[in-house]
Amino acid sequence: MFSKLSSGHPALIASLGVPRIGPRRELKAALEAYWSGRSGAETLLDAAAGLRAANWARQKALGVDILPSNDFSLYDHVLDMSVVLGAIPAAYGWEGGPVSLDTYFAMARGRTGVHPAACGCGQPHEAGRADHGVPALEMTKWFDTNYHYMVPEFEAGQRFCLASLKPVEEFLEAKSLGFHTRPVLLGPVTFLLLGKSKDPSVPPITLLEELLPVYAQLLGKLAAAGADWVQIDEPCLATDLGPDAQAALARSYRYLADAVPQLKILLASYFGGFEENLQAALGLPVAGLHLDLCRAPDQLEAVLDGARPDLTLSLGVIDGRNVWRANLPRLLDRLEPVIAARGAGQVQIAPSCSLLHVPVDLDLETGLDGDLKSWLAFAVQKLEELAILGTALRIGRGAVTAELEEAARAAGQRAASAKVHDPAVAARLASVTPEMAERASPFAVRAGVQRAALPLPLFPTTTIGSFPQTDAVRKARSAHARGEMGDGAYENFLRRQTAEAVQWQEEIGLDVLVHGEFERNDMVQYFGEQLSGFAFTAFGWVQSYGSRCVRPPILFGDVSRPKAMTVEWWRYAQSLTAKPMKGMLTGPVTILNWSFVRDDIPRSEACRQIALAIRDEVVDLEAAGARMIQIDEAALREGLPLRRRDWPAYLAWAVESFRLTAAVAADGTQIHTHMCYSDFNSIIEAIAAMDADVISIETSRSKMELLDAFRSYSYPNEIGPGVYDIHSPRVPEIREMSELLLLAREQIADRQLWVNPDCGLKTRKWEEVRPALINMVAAARLLRQTLAAA
């Protein structure tokens, strides 16, 4: 749209980071080819270099003045920082020197063990090793986003060292291509606060003095390479920080400013406002401060009042977390006085955070409704919006009159569109009563009814829902979408896949079965495609972790369910077995949190609309004969606001939405739910208030630490703590899962305890899933036998 902006305009345009995956998920293809052995390290690294070069060139062409480097990662930027700082646990076998790709990916994905042939364990063998592998680092969500990061792990006597020069190398790589960049680093305080210490007596923040010299060494090398600015991200400033953390920030930036005075630091925080941390942030000896004015627009005045005259302010005015087009004239109304007050050289305009969290380019979407497309902006378009703002600020609004009028017109059309607002949905929502969110009987009564109707052994075994989406499944889905496979042939293919999965589950002895979800492309998209108010993209991918990418639905309007969505597949699967078959639904909070959500109504209202639609599906499944219905709320916890004072309000409407969905079920219908990475310690009462009959959670990577809440809280319902990590390709031993079950029994009564994997098995391969589930069933049977013999 624009040529490169000339230097000297009052507000520099800055990028804090861009998507790594490529417009067509080129990084995913390169990673998976490397992991499968179809290509080597050189091919992977060449592909990564090509993506970085394309990102720098694209941003420069769009008019970005300040380009980031080191925002690219082969897997995760927090993992990268662990490697740079030498925070590599001994289990991964690193003994100093360059960190190999094998070590890096072992931290990310685990390492499959190899054993002597005589060991008889039945697991994969690999030359040169004689162990049962090593699990990946723990993984959890990056603040309140849908992105996962690898949790840094600190050992007793932890030492840090500069083990990788990746930030310097990528700065020099950009420089060799003609791009002068501002390197991006995760800050020392956030890095430590995100980590976990294996020694409970050594809180991670106490490792700061050991860590800071390594940061200073890294900054010194960046300065020597020619960097004049560095962006250091401390998103912990948008959270509740205690005095120790605030003191750690002050200590860190005094130390770094003294150690490398020639390098200017832009301290970046995002995902919320500074609030009580503002004075601490303004008091730091940094050259610049980035603030998120999309999540916290009201903080601008306080920052302006307290900022030093020489402090450069980076104003995050374009939303890096959502896909809606900005009302540019309205933004200019706010920016122009700031530019006038601060002076020409003291303001940058930027996205609110890295654009990692949005798709790459809206122009690739040729199939979207025209009106909807006119309301959207992906990463490329968001940088174009910044270019329009920069031009208006530099030479006046008249230079971009047409662009500004178009942005305002799109905002007005969206607000008034009948595609967005449905009076019938509004009327139904207004008719909801508190009684609609209450089960007919308390759990103690329901449990008796359910056990009589569904006699199961102690420690019943099941899975979370999905089975591997093989190449054959993906190719068939793609052929059907292209019209190369007819509806009848595709349905017959899916029926065969389902029948084989049901038969195999019976053969290995699982107690409660699932149909495998072969007909589903994604646990949210599958439902969104059948609900009104949602739209879907062809290339709107965002990274979840590593090569795992998702296409979040775009929730643009009022939600309703035109017809049943899952009943026929459940009915077919149940016809194949006498064992109970779970009906599988995605819950309203997860659908909301894993979508790009409309910003014209409260999130709570949008969630209740979805809840009513899924409630209708529960009614239809139960009428068809389903007596176990799983309503997954994998993302309930990740929607928690970053400030604890805001938790009660969120949890109130999130729990109510789940209950509104599930409470319509009769006493004899067992309601299951599943949650990912749920820190039960902090929200155990809200989890109990959901009143699901059975909950399954991810616990294996944390070695059942997530069950610590049950030491002090008597959870009344049933629970399945995951006994093996499905995010790693390694196959856990029977002994390993048995030990986790024993840990779970220390805090959960036998009658409450279910046995299941951590999460769905969609992303795994059958050669990993089969032995793992066989071992899981064996571990449950061993525990039953042990108790029977006692």
Write a concise keyword list for the protein shown above.
790 residues, alpha/beta, TIM Barrel, 2 domains, eight-stranded parallel beta sheet, five-stranded parallel beta sheet, 26 helices, disordered N terminus
What does the model show?
With 790 residues, the protein is an alpha/beta fold. The chain has an 8-stranded parallel β-sheet. Strand 16 and strand 17 form a beta hairpin. The longest helix is centred in the last third of the chain and has 24 residues. The chain starts with 10 loop residues before the first strand and ends with a helix.
Q: Which topology of the largest domain does CATH recognise?
A: TIM Barrel
The largest beta-sheet arranges its strands as 1-14-13-12-11-10-8-2
Enumerate how many helices there are, as a single number: 26
The portion of residues forming beta strands comes to 5-15%
- Return the structural class: alpha/beta
* Fraction of residues in helix: 40-55%
| Beginning-to-end CA distance, first to last residue | 76 Å
Overview in brief:
The chain is α/β, with parallel strands linked by helices. It contains 26 helices and 24 strands. The protein has 2 domains: 11-89 and 137-359 and 368-416, Alpha-Beta Barrel (TIM Barrel); 423-470 and 501-789, TIM Barrel, CATH 3.20.20.210.
Secondary structure: elements and pairs:
Layout: E1 11-13, H1 26-36, H2 41-61, E2 67-69, H3 77-84, H4 101-109, E3 111-114, E4 131-134, E5 139-141, E6 148-150, E7 153-154, H5 166-176, E8 181-186, H6 188-194, E9 196-197, H7 208-225, E10 229-233, H8 243-259, E11 264-268, H9 278-282, E12 288-292, H10 300-306, E13 312-318, H11 328-342, E14 347-351, H12 370-374, H13 379-395, H14 401-416, H15 423-430, H16 443-453, H17 471-481, H18 487-508, H19 525-528, E15 532-535, E16 542-545, E17 548-550, E18 554-560, H20 567-574, E19 583-586, H21 588-593, E20 596-597, H22 603-624, E21 628-632, H23 647-662, E22 670-675, H24 680-690, E23 694-697, E24 718-721, H25 734-745, H26 766-789
Parallel strand pairs: 1-14, 2-8, 7-9, 8-10, 10-11, 11-12, 12-13, 13-14, 18-20, 19-21, 21-22, 22-23, 23-24
Antiparallel strand pairs: 3-4, 5-6, 15-18, 16-17
